[in-house]
């Protein structure tokens, strides 16, 4: 009898993997947040070809079953009036250039109908998310301009607050010194204007007061493009249970961030030790790239064996998904990896080619094919259609 157990277990696992592969390929997979464009301006990588560094290229995206990618347009708070909007357009230009070089592999889409058409054509559907309200430079016409270029969502703040909305970082660390909390009247006008344009409002990075002001103002469902559950990892970037419930009531979707620091509450102290041990190399890389985040990513690649030891297990990310599903329902969960925007992700998630592992793990937890379809992209499609009208 014991001799039969191992073959039977092996066969069961093989069948499960085959089922997962079929379900994964059949589903429309949408990742709502990837920072590769910010890095490409520095690295000059040809994203149409397989790369040995970074998390994304069109080859690995195809292998991972990725159907639609919302590319993050981002610049740090050192950019402001006179520079931030121009930098945003420079990143959009780089996406346009990629599409022009590989028109048979990737195409720009503006709504769910165009997204489905791209999937039928076996092309990656490219969408645009502007990560940080400072890039509109307090100008409503800049919102119009970005929307015309394809902006599908605007993340109201990055870590830095704007003159009209307060961020999660600032509401926590600067609360007593802030001139206001939440949305100003102008901030509410911006939310209403985004609704009118069919641009999704993204509440990742915003403070709690801003979050609730948004829900009181918007007439359409919102998105949290790359966040996790605060109850599992109490990072200020994650969402608390009552926020998640409010998001569900709005009809919105939280898309799970893969970054180790938002998945694992024990990661931050461990990575602090790692960075201290390699401070000299990190300083040198920062000077080379003139970008601290990219330097950190490169440092972790250089010392991969050490970095891997402090990465959380994939099961912990799945726990975030399962926790939120059980709290607010399967209709309000999606995928927002933050690939190419961080130095570490759970073990097994090394690039966009690894998305199928999530489907495998959900299947092991007895999620149905319908549930998995919703999590991988169906829920985001619903919110996108509710905002654009098509």
Automatic annotation (TrEMBL):
Signal peptide: 1-17
InterPro entries named in the record: Metal_Hydrolase (IPR032466), Pept_M19 (IPR008257)
Record's keyword annotation contains Signal: yes
Lyase recorded as keyword: no
Gene Ontology MF annotations: metallodipeptidase activity
TM segment ranges: none
Keywords: Signal
Pfam families reported for this sequence: Peptidase_M19 (PF01244)
GO biological process: proteolysis
Superkingdom classification of source: Bacteria
Protein name: Membrane dipeptidase
Lineage of the organism: Bacteria, Pseudomonadati, Bacteroidota, Sphingobacteriia, Sphingobacteriales
